[in-house]
Amino acid sequence: MIAAQTRTEVLTHHTGPKTQKQRGIITFGIAPNRQNPFAHAGHDAIFNTWRRFSRQVLYWAPGFIAGYYAINWAKHRNHYLNSKAGRAETAEHEE
Pfam families from the entry (predicted)? Predict the structure, then answer.
């Protein structure tokens, strides 16, 4: 290493070619004590949840409704078949 080289020149030499310095780039920041990261978080959470729910409900609700009615029908049918009237009905068909 040559003594005249600076630390950045050595790193630049090893990491890639030298590039020109950027000009005209302006960055802005805000002080940490002026930030309010949870501003309107509760309000936004409620309305964002409702918006997402209302857009997706037509995709999954018909399946749940059909499943509910199928299970409900099966429970009532099972209850009937295990009752006195249901056993009498199935006994007529088996004979």
Answer: UcrQ
